[in-house]
Amino acid sequence: MVSKNIENALNEQIRVEAESSQIYLAMACWAEVKGLEGVANFMYSQSQEERDHMLKLIKFVNERGGHAHVSELKAPNVTFKSFQEMFEKLYEHEVYVSESINELVHISLQEKDYATHNFLQWYVAEQIEEEAMARTILDKINLIGNDKGGLYLFDRDIEQLTINSAASTGTV
Ligand code: OFO
């Protein structure tokens, strides 16, 4: 059974994951209309992953005797000055999500809710990976800058990253 406090904190995280999914969906759309198909596919798959993170939380809250809430979401940015800016936002957002997960872990320890604490370890590990991936991509795009040829190759590379990460999470 989750306490009211934990239930509210988990519901807040459900909202964060749902917003993450929308943020990456908007990035996918922008990349698609700009003609970078590899980047668009990467963002569509990130968006799907965030939705899965949200669903995992929803199931947990409901199974533990709470009530998962589906709430109103903040509208995401739909345009960007450059791909560099877009990937900066992606990295910043992942850092924000990690902080939010850390806060949840902290609350679960305060409440001595070890079941929730154990459940959250999956998110802690996931955030380490996602932050590292976002950082690697950002480093690459910073090197490329506005070079069209570099961007073309980057688009091809990121497509491969999407396929590999989908294979490792078992979604293909
Ligand atoms: Fe990448 O954010 Fe979910 O957990």
TrEMBL record:
<keyword id="KW-0408">Iron</keyword>
<comment type="function">
    <text>May alleviate iron toxicity in the presence of oxygen.</text>
</comment>
<dbReference type="InterPro" id="IPR041719">
    <property type="entry name" value="Ferritin_prok"/>
</dbReference>
<dbReference type="GO" id="GO:0008199">
    <property type="term" value="F:ferric iron binding"/>
</dbReference>
<dbReference type="InterPro" id="IPR001519">
    <property type="entry name" value="Ferritin"/>
</dbReference>
<dbReference type="InterPro" id="IPR008331">
    <property type="entry name" value="Ferritin_DPS_dom"/>
</dbReference>
<feature type="binding site">
    <location>
        <position position="17"/>
    </location>
    <ligand>
        <name>Fe cation</name>
    </ligand>
</feature>
<comment type="similarity">
    <text>Belongs to the ferritin family. Prokaryotic subfamily.</text>
</comment>
<dbReference type="Pfam" id="PF00210">
    <property type="entry name" value="Ferritin"/>
</dbReference>
<dbReference type="InterPro" id="IPR009040">
    <property type="entry name" value="Ferritin-like_diiron"/>
</dbReference>
<keyword id="KW-0560">Oxidoreductase</keyword>
<comment type="function">
    <text>Iron-storage protein.</text>
</comment>
<keyword id="KW-0479">Metal-binding</keyword>
<feature type="binding site">
    <location>
        <position position="53"/>
    </location>
    <ligand>
        <name>Fe cation</name>
    </ligand>
</feature>
<dbReference type="GO" id="GO:0042802">
    <property type="term" value="F:identical protein binding"/>
</dbReference>
<dbReference type="InterPro" id="IPR009078">
    <property type="entry name" value="Ferritin-like_SF"/>
</dbReference>
<dbReference type="GO" id="GO:0006826">
    <property type="term" value="P:iron ion transport"/>
</dbReference>
<feature type="binding site">
    <location>
        <position position="50"/>
    </location>
    <ligand>
        <name>Fe cation</name>
    </ligand>
</feature>
<dbReference type="GO" id="GO:0006879">
    <property type="term" value="P:intracellular iron ion homeostasis"/>
</dbReference>
<feature type="binding site">
    <location>
        <position position="94"/>
    </location>
    <ligand>
        <name>Fe cation</name>
    </ligand>
</feature>
<dbReference type="InterPro" id="IPR012347">
    <property type="entry name" value="Ferritin-like"/>
</dbReference>
<dbReference type="GO" id="GO:0008198">
    <property type="term" value="F:ferrous iron binding"/>
</dbReference>
<dbReference type="GO" id="GO:0005829">
    <property type="term" value="C:cytosol"/>
</dbReference>
<dbReference type="GO" id="GO:0004322">
    <property type="term" value="F:ferroxidase activity"/>
</dbReference>
<feature type="binding site">
    <location>
        <position position="127"/>
    </location>
    <ligand>
        <name>Fe cation</name>
    </ligand>
</feature>
<feature type="domain" description="Ferritin-like diiron">
    <location>
        <begin position="1"/>
        <end position="145"/>
    </location>
</feature>
<protein>
    <recommendedName>
        <fullName>Ferritin</fullName>
        <ecNumber>1.16.3.2</ecNumber>
    </recommendedName>
</protein>
<keyword id="KW-0409">Iron storage</keyword>
<keyword id="KW-0963">Cytoplasm</keyword>
